[in-house]
Amino acid sequence: MWKSVLTGIILENIETLRHYQIMKDQNSNTVESIFQYVSGVISTLPWYFRLPVIMLANIIGLLCLITTGHNLDLLSSEKRSSYLRRVRFIPLFGMLNKLVRSMAFLRLFDCLPLEPDYSK
Amino acid sequence: MQNSILAPGNYIQDTYSCQYLIVGTGAGGSVAGALLAEAGHDVIYLEEGGYYPTEFYTSNISEMTSLLYRNQGVFPFLGKPSIAFAEGCCVGGGTVINGGLIWRTPSWILDEWQNDYGLEGYSNKELIKHFETVEKDMHVITCEPEEKENLDSLKLLKASEELSWKYVMVPRAVKDCINNNLCPTGCPTGAKQSTLENYIPRSIKNGARIFSRCRALKIIHSDRKAKKVIARVMGEESKHIEILFDHLVLAGGAVQTPHLLHRSRISSMAGRNLQFHMNLKVVARFKDRIDAEKGTIFTVQVQEFSREGLLITASNMKPHYIAMALSHYGNGVINSVLEDYQNLGIFALMVRPKSIAHIISRIGDQPLVLYRFHPDDLSKIRVALRRTANILFQAGAIELYMPIAGIEKVKSLHELDKKLDSMHPEKLEIITVHVMASCPMGPDPATSVVNPDGKLWNMKNILVADASILPSNIGTSPQGTIMAFAHEIINRHI
Description:
The structure holds two protein chains of two kinds. By secondary structure, chain A is an all-alpha fold. Helices cover 72% and strands 0% of the residues of chain A. Chain A has one domain. The C terminus of chain A is likely disordered. In chain B, α1 packs parallel to α7, α5 packs across α13 and α11 runs antiparallel to α12. Chain B is built from 13 helices and 25 strands.
């Protein structure tokens, strides 16, 4: 549930970015890499931030399953966007989305080799 | 050097002892530890983060953020709006991930501390020897913006001249900087002089040991004397160790130091008055290429309004930072802006606010920071944004993307003015990297946490040597001030 919701929110935030579209053809692991990163960030948060985030994600995932019959990450882009528009009024969803969006952006631009490795 | 640095897996004993235990290895702790070790004392540093020397650093910004920042860079101050606080958590602390700016404390701030807070012994005259020492130790230089590689800074400089605004070349701790623009995630060439490049090696050379990935949990004390610190070795093989000492120096930063004091039931006043700076980022699109990524950061600083608590500089530039700075805009805007990447610059304005935060320590291992947005800060930020826009349009910007949710790009000051009038605080995108004044130094135990010698009022053997002891926020990068204060405190002590 956790993975499907987080992946769904990540996709919602990056799918229309041109940099992602370039990478999608080059590397199918981009979304997995971003998921691992964002998930890692959330796991290091203090419990009083982490627990509400995980609970909220599970509520969003459960509601998605009940109302659409599918996990969030398996919905088509249109259906996912439509569903997330409907749940954006749930308290704390804005905070969760902002966190995921920022961290996804941070990771996304490291998935494409844009520059030399200065450590070499 | 490696033998002096313990990491998880190397903590064989359950109890260690030393003369001086320093909690934290950043700007304050490393200076204190180096001076104490050089004076012949047995020093242990306790550092929650890992040890990552220069050869670890790469251009992979997300991975470096995970390694070097607390909570991988996510630490919100809760309020309206919530503020993203970024803090280093590694050997070297904030000095590894900052821009390497080393300012002397503005003399008017030192006067304010003397006149308003009664702090004697920290005037410019008394601190100047420490500033000079720090500048020599840290290899502080000022860089001129180059025509080919610092066009964002050069544009600020020229616009300042046209507006007759005061600007200065920024004093930075660098050696042979090649402008790779990676200061905030660890300089991969070792050009930026963090404490890893000087004070930490000096400490180790004189016998100091570093306990890395080891978090101080509690200070055990009796009869007004601290006896030992209980610490947790981080990672999969987590275990608790005890470190006995004669003296304790706290230098974990303005959030973690008061948190430790709270948890140890030593000071209830610590952490009530956490002050900070507010940073806001404006993305500017220019008509011509400026290739901001090729320049180093913070070369020129606009100081025309520094007495009013406003500084303006060019900021570090990578596509990651552009996207994050624009994350409150839709992806269509981000796509459109990134298409013109070579024409973009990120400019940071730093505001000295009246808003004050406080630290709650009772709910767990990590502190919770709450703050109340002071109503005066809204008009201060409004003016700051307008002045920043003014200089950027003067510099040739054709569009600005403001750090305000719900506001479209602006193409003129007139357009901005209309939008600023209806601006609400909760719409602002604010970050902070400078926190201070949570354990203020002062002459009166009723209003301060440490005395002018840096010693906790109610304990015989605990010194504090980090940003928490500054009486108030200082309106400029505090590293030089922290280091100078640490010098003064340790000099008085030994």
